[in-house]
């Protein structure tokens, strides 16, 4: 479980004009969006202000969701 932050490895295809990581809660409400400026790397997401529970992060490329994964926050 995450306590302070979550680190996400990402890689997006060449020619992508817009990419982001979106964090959602169990109800599907967006709680955070992080724009990605590089084609690959690590996105570090601060979760200290999120309540304990299950969340999902999705990789959006050109406004299309290409990957979704789950993580747990427990302080």
Task: Give an overview of the whole structure.
Helix content is 0%, strand content 61%. The protein is mainly β and 75 residues long. It has a four-stranded antiparallel β-sheet, with no helix packed on it. A two-stranded antiparallel sheet has the order 1-4. A hairpin with a 4-residue loop joins strand 2 (19-25) and strand 3 (30-35).
Which keywords apply here?
globular, two-stranded antiparallel ribbon, mainly beta, 75 residues, 61% strand
In short:
This protein has 75 residues and is mainly β. It is built from no helices and 6 strands. The radius of gyration is 12 Å and the shape is globular.
Query: What's the overall geometry?
Result: globular
Amino- and carboxy-terminal Cα gap: 9 Å
Q: List how many beta strands DSSP finds.
A: 6
**Radius of gyration of CA atoms, rounded to a whole number:** 12 Å
Order of helices and strands: EEEEEE
Q: Report the uncertain regions.
A: none
Mean pLDDT: 96
Q: So how many helices?
A: 0
> Level of helix content?
under 10%
Characterize the largest beta sheet: strand count, sense, and whether it forms a barrel: 4 strands, antiparallel
Strand content: over 45%
Strand order of the largest sheet: 3-2-5-6
Structural class: mainly beta
Which helices and strands appear, and what pairs or packs with what?
Blueprint: E1 5-11, E2 19-25, E3 30-35, E4 40-46, E5 53-61, E6 64-73
Antiparallel strand pairs: 1-4, 2-3, 2-5, 5-6
């Amino acid at each position: 479980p995450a306590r302070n932050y979550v680190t996400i490895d990402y890689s997006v295809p060449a020619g992508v004009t817009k990419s982001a990581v979106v964090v959602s809660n169990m109800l599907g409400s967006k709680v955070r969006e992080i724009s990605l400026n590089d084609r690959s790397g690590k996105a570090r997401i601060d979760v200290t202000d999120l309540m304990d529970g299950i969340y999902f992060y999705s990789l959006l490329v050109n406004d299309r969701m290409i990957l979704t994964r789950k993580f747990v926050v427990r302080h």
